[in-house]
Amino acid sequence: MAVDTRAAPQPAAKARPRPKREREEEVLVWPDLVFIEFISAVLFTITFLMLSVFINAPLLNRANPEQTPNPSKAPWYFLNLQELLLHMDKAWAGVLLPTIALAFFAAIPYIDRSREGQGVWFGSKNAVRLTVISAVYAVIISGALVAFDSGDRTYTENLTRWIPSCNGDAQHQGTPCLRDEGDDHIGIVSTKDISKRLEFSIPWPNALLADDDSNLDWPEDLDHIGVPFNNICGNIGSFHLWCDMHLNIPSIMAEQVIPLSSIAFFAVAIIYVLFRIGWLRTKRDLFIVMFTAVLVAYLTLSMVGSFFRGEGQNLIWPWEIKVDEG
User: Is-contact 318 307, C-beta < 8 A?
Assistant: First the structure.
């Protein structure tokens, strides 16, 4: 008797049913989201109306293009950039640093690809303490740097009064000293003093096109150094050639190197400390620290520019601010 050795057809495998999501895990647009937004908008409108009834808004007169108010401040969302302009080079403060910050925010999802704790507030083990510590650290460091760069108002110039006053009759100062504009000797008021008031000399014959006096004097021998091919002038289409371009080394140090080095140092310092004590272990932790610090520093500088800058952008107490309409 012949036997059919062909394999019997196997029943088709059943597709795995899609797991059902629990109702409490879902958030629907209506009514969960829209209703909350509506209530929030109503509460905000009522609060805003009540404040407008009892508090007189400090409005100025109609704008006059011939008279600039003092202080003249940017809109609140640009006050942090206006504050940065007081402490560093305008290209870095107004363009480069904001671009780097925005690029950093945009790159976070592409670098941190982990799905663990996705969509959850403080989704890692140490997220809460990292957020709090980073926020407090950013407020303290931002405020301290602003205060140090306004030494005439915060008296932080007392920390550098040990630097002697320059001898006005000496051709070369030798050891570092500070040139005083008045009768009283004061320390370093802001980082700009490093390029203007700080003076010293070192033996260096014929240094960087300086006079042949066997000394390199800071800042006068370093504030007008020609770049290569700076004798080429003119335009090729929209490209502007060098045309007598020079480098001001003291200004670069005071307005670029020192501010940027300070930002990098304090950023690396907090990351290193948190890593050493064992709280920062993953990319998620790192980005929580960096994102929180950048955002809180942004808000801190905005608060300083809004409530602590008076006439001439001087650092004063909020109750001393008075607007001169010109």
Answer: yes
pTM, to two decimals: 0.78
Bridge-based pairing state of the strands 225-226 and 235-236: unpaired
Burial of 201 (0-12, 13-18, 19+ CB in 10 A): buried
The alpha-helical segments, DSSP class H, found in the chain are: 34-54, 79-85, 90-91, 97-111, 127-148, 151-154, 193-196, 249-252, 258-276, 283-307
Distance CA 271, CA 133 (A): 11
- State the pLDDT at residue 207: 46
Of residues 326 and 63, which shows the higher confidence score?
63
Q: For 22-48, what is the mean pLDDT?
A: 83
CB neighbours of 129 closer than 8 A, spacing ≥ 6? 279
Instruction: Tell me how many helices (H) and strands (E) the chain has.
Output: 10, 7
In the 8-state DSSP scheme, what is residue 324? B
For residues 183 and 158, give the distance between their C-alpha atoms in angstroms, rounded to a whole number.
16
Look at residues 79, 103, 82, 105 and name the one whose alpha carbon lies nearest to residue 94: 82
CA distance 230 to 220: 20
